[in-house]
């Protein structure tokens, strides 16, 4: 070994004086013989230094090949030299030659100060060719007879312990992060270990200096991080009482190093714009890590972070209160009138929903709190109390458990991070929502009021409708601006007493009233008359103003159908009266054929109109209203919350609108039916005129009965009566032609309807033209 060292030094430093060379040899041999084994840390540091040098060579220097060769040769060192591996490798590296550099390189030894920047030493007693000669962490200064005194290991360990507590010392200064003081000289192994310890100290400093953020969840997170540091402080207190070496200190810090790294990463991830439920979602993501230790730490932190969130959920689901001073809860309230509590006051803030809550579960939480508030604020005399209900009052945080060894981690629900929360929410939601539905159905008689609307506004109470139609005939025939509501209320009360509607509950009858629309020029009472049904809380949430408008629109359509049907029935009665009157007088045979032809034509067209109106009315009343009502009853029996009750009722109204041609897309059908109903009313008016003329002629014939027969025929053939018959026949032909044409257009519109209720519409077409009569008329332009 001595020969090898001498040959290497002489080849590298040929100009070195003999005295200097001897001093250098002595120093080298003293280091090789007396220096303690570097251990694994020093071995690794020197090997890494050599590897970096070899990898940094130019491509032409085959640095990669040299690096691989070095990795193989270092393992061939004799086993007895293992204790001095770092010293041997350091010597070989410092005495290396670099023939590719173009000149002989002076031996460079690294003095590690502060940030590990290579520093040149002062002059030594060596010759000018070796003015600076440094051996790993030693600085050979001018006048120094040997290496400088190293920093005592005890002081180094003490200062490192101070740094781990966030306190600056002589060796290490805190400037954002802990750094080695530039005046401190450390050996390469000591510097490497110190840097690793200082990284840990910097992480602790950042964690301990983190201020509590705004929001309960952020504050809970900061408190949980501080709790996690308690074990770290306990370990430091233990280490302060022991006598440690640098290597033993590092071995103690290996376990908390990973923990602090995780805590620092978590702190950084929740610092930048993370708020509310997103904080809990971030912690849950860490709790799903594959590292069991990280899982345990994240689970403990999660238990603290979700505590204020669970308190908000508990207060919302049990008392209907939003205890959310910082706006972190995923349920938010808007300032709207109390009548809009259910539809507009509360909504779900999707960005605030934590990841361990599914949207379905979050909606159930929202719905439960809304139900509690609805019971308290919109149901008079009802006081909601959750006391005694374990499912709603307890959200046990003890259910948040750490994963066990070997436990499969698939997600928060399966791993037990919030085990039982979903079941508790389901139980509380079921109890509250069922109570609200039962309250509406039983105490506030929701079904009974829906039936009342079916009977009165949808004209399901036939005897009442006929009685009301007869009683209002004279009133509604007047001009619209001459009608007064209080008069109609008296007629309505009389119609109720004359029908079986009088046996309805008093509360139902008290809600029934009359509503008059704003009249326009030329309108009659029929055009502005509506039945009204008063709705108050809490039924207003089901029978909303929009829903009541749909009821009123349907009533107007059905009322017009019943009016036309009633008018046609009155025309038939008048026609039969005229025939009986003529037969009673015995003058029917004396009437000319023209008069009977006109009356027969009236009868035929009336039958066509009656067939059309009865089929439309039968279709709407039985195939639309009755079937929709049956579906509503079945749907309400299976409802578990108020939203489902409202949804079923809305679907009921939609089915009625679609079936009664009131929905969007059925405008052509509705306009066709309205035009045909208007023609039917024109027919009734024309029929009344013809019958009136016939009655006048019959009276004239009765007065002329005592005279000769010629006088009777003179009356029948008089110019006014003949002109009246001719005008009636011409007008009747016009009505018949318009009816045939418009009915054909209606049938075509029904056939062109989209898939919306296509089966019902097709069946209606078949009923309106069951024998193809109007279809043949459409194929024959000449008409009948």
What about the largest sheet?
A: 3 strands, antiparallel
Count of DSSP H/I helices: 29
Shape: elongated
CATH architecture classification name of the largest domain: Up-down Bundle
Number of domains in the coordinates?
5
- How many strands? 9
Low-confidence stretches: 99-149, 388-394, 396-415
Q: Span from first to last CA? A: 133 Å
Mean pLDDT: 79
CATH class of the largest domain: Mainly Alpha
CATH topology of the largest domain: Four Helix Bundle (Hemerythrin (Met), subunit A)
Strand order of the largest sheet: 2-1-5
Cα radius of gyration in angstroms: 51 Å
Q: Summarize the amount of helix as a percent range.
A: 55-70%
Based on secondary structure, the structural category is mainly alpha
Proportion in β-strands: under 5%
Main attributes?
3-stranded antiparallel sheet; elongated; 29 helices; 5 domains; mainly alpha; 784 residues; 4% strand; single chain
């Amino acid at each position: 070994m001595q020969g090898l060292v001498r040959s290497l030094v002489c080849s590298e430093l040929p100009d070195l004086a003999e005295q200097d060379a001897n001093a250098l040899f002595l120093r080298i041999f003293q280091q090789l013989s007396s220096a303690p084994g570097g251990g694994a840390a020093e071995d690794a540091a020197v090997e890494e230094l050599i590897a970096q040098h070899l990898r940094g060579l130019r491509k032409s220097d085959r640095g990669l090949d040299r690096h691989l060769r070095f990795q193989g040769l270092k393992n061939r060192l004799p086993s007895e030299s293992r204790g001095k591996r770092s010293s041997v490798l350091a010597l070989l590296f410092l005495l290396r030659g670099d023939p590719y550099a173009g000149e002989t390189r002076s031996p460079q030894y690294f003095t590690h100060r502060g940030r590990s920047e290579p520093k040149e030493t002062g002059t030594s007693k060596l010759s000018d060719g070796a003015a600076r000669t440094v051996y790993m962490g030693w600085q050979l200064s001018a006048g120094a007879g040997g290496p400088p005194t190293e920093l005592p290991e005890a002081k180094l360990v003490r200062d490192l312990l101070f740094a781990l507590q966030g306190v600056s010392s002589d060796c290490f200064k805190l400037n954002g992060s802990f750094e080695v003081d530039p005046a401190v000289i450390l050996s390469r192994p000591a510097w490497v270990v110190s840097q690793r310890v200082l990284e840990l100290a910097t992480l602790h400093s950042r964690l301990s200096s983190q201020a509590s953020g705004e929001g309960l969840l952020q504050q809970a997170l900061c408190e949980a991080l501080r709790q996690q540091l308690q074990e770290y402080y306990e370990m430091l207190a233990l280490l302060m009482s022991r006598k440690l070496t640098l290597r033993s200190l590092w071995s103690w810090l290996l376990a908390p190093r990973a923990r602090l790294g995780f805590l620092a990463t978590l702190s950084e991830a929740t610092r930048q714009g993370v708020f509310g439920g997103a904080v809990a979602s971030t912690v849950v993501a860490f709790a799903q890590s594959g590292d069991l230790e990280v899982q345990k730490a994240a689970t403990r932190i999660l238990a603290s972070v979700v505590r204020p969130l669970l308190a908000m959920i508990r207060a919302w689901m049990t008392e209907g209160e939003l205890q959310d001073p910082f706006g972190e809860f995923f349920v938010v309230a808007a300032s709207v009138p109390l009548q809009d509590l259910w539809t507009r006051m509360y909504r779900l803030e999707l960005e605030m929903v934590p990841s361990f809550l599914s949207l379905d579960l979050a909606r159930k939480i929202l719905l439960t709190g809304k139900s509690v508030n609805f019971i308290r604020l919109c149901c008079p005399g009802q006081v909601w109390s959750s006391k005694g209900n374990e499912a709603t009052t307890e959200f046990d945080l003890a259910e948040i458990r750490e994963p066990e060894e070997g436990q499969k981690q698939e997600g928060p629900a399966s791993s037990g991070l919030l085990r039982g929360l979903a079941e508790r929410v389901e139980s509380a939601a079921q109890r509250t929502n069922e109570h609200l539905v039962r309250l509406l159905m039983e105490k506030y008689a929701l079904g009974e009021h829906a039936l009342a609307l079916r009977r009165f506004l949808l004209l399901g109470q036939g005897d009442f409708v006929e009685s009301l139609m007869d009683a209002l005939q004279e009133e509604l025939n007047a001009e619209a601006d001459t009608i007064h509501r209080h008069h109609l209320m008296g007629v309505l009360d009389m119609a109720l007493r004359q029908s079986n509607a009088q046996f309805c509950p008093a509360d139902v009858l008290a809600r029934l009233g009359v509503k008059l629309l704003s009249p326009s020029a030329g309108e009659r009472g029929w055009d502005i008359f509506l039945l009204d049904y008063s709705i108050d809380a809490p039924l207003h949430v089901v029978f909303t103003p929009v829903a009541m408008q749909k009821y009123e629109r349907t009533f107007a359509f059905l009322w017009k159908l019943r009016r036309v049907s009633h008018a046609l029935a009155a025309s038939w009665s008048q026609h039969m009266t005229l025939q009986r009157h003529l037969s009673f007088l015995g003058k029917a045979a004396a009437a000319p054929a023209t008069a009977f032809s006109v009356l027969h034509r009236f009868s035929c067209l009336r039958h066509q109109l009656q067939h059309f109106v009865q089929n439309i009315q039968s279709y709407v009343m039985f195939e639309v209203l009755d079937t929709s009502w049956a579906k509503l009853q079945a749907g309400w029996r299976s409802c578990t919350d108020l939203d489902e009750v409202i949804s079923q009722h809305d679907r009921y109204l939609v089915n009625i609108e679609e079936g009664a041609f009131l929905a969007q897309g059925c405008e052509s059908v509705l306009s066709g039916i309205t035009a045909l109903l208007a023609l039917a009313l024109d027919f009734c008016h024309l029929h009344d005129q013809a019958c009136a003329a016939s009655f006048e002629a019959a009276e004239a014939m009765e007065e002329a009965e005592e005279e000769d027969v010629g006088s009777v025929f003179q009356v029948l053939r008089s110019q006014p009566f003949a002109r009246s018959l001719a005008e009636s026949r011409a007008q009747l032909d016009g009505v018949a032609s318009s009816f045939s044409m418009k009915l054909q257009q209606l049938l075509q519109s029904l056939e062109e309807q989209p898939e919306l209720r296509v089966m019902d519409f097709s069946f209606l077409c078949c009923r309106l033209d069951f024998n193809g009569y109007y279809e043949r008329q459409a194929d024959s332009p000449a008409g009948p």
